[in-house]
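Input chain follows. Return structure tokens only.
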Amino acid sequence: MPMRVATWNVEWATPRFWGTAEILSRIDQCAAEVVCLTETHDMLLSGKGHTICSGADYGYPIKEGRRKVMLWSREPWRQVDDVGIDSMPPGRFVSGVTGTSLGDVTVIGVCIPWFGSRTEKRRGEERKKTWEDHEQYLAGLAELLRRRPAGRLIVMGDFNQVIGPGSRAPHALRSALAQALPPGMVIVTADLALRGRCCIDHIALSEDLEAQSVRVIDNALDGRGLSDHFGAVAKVSARPA
């Protein structure tokens, strides 16, 4: 039986945000068994289901409830990791194993830093170069994925890269993203676009999984933006042996 998974950067929507009810409605309409939200609030998906989050410190002043990454599942999480690799920029990673219609699946939620991450001058902190955090994150992700045990794997979240034509990322970092993923893993959202904008919130599936369908989650309501990103949902099945 196929399952659905969804990801969306909700631009720090809180339970009090004017558009939160619509955001939650659109997520609910996805009928997803697993959801990854980025730039979110730790109470946004409270209630039924099970959530795990990245650490609160993502290299910027901490604001109550903010999390760069949250994973939600219908079933409980096991083997939870909110660090990844120590060398990775902090607070942008969470992973776990959960039961699904396809059996146990390891899910990694990511919020890969944007090109300007921590490039601002801050008191007592080292100023990063453009794309430096992004590059460092991809190097750590590559190392982590090389070590991972065999089994079904989904990596999803905010990749902060357009895949293919239209990407503004340096060629070396486009290659670094492709090489970070295990052999056979496919970014199934690579071709998604909405109103002339290419997708940067992505879903990647290991070679034993395949997408039957992929679609966007619209980020507009009556001409107003629910988020500065649009989301993605994929219907996923096991690839025939």
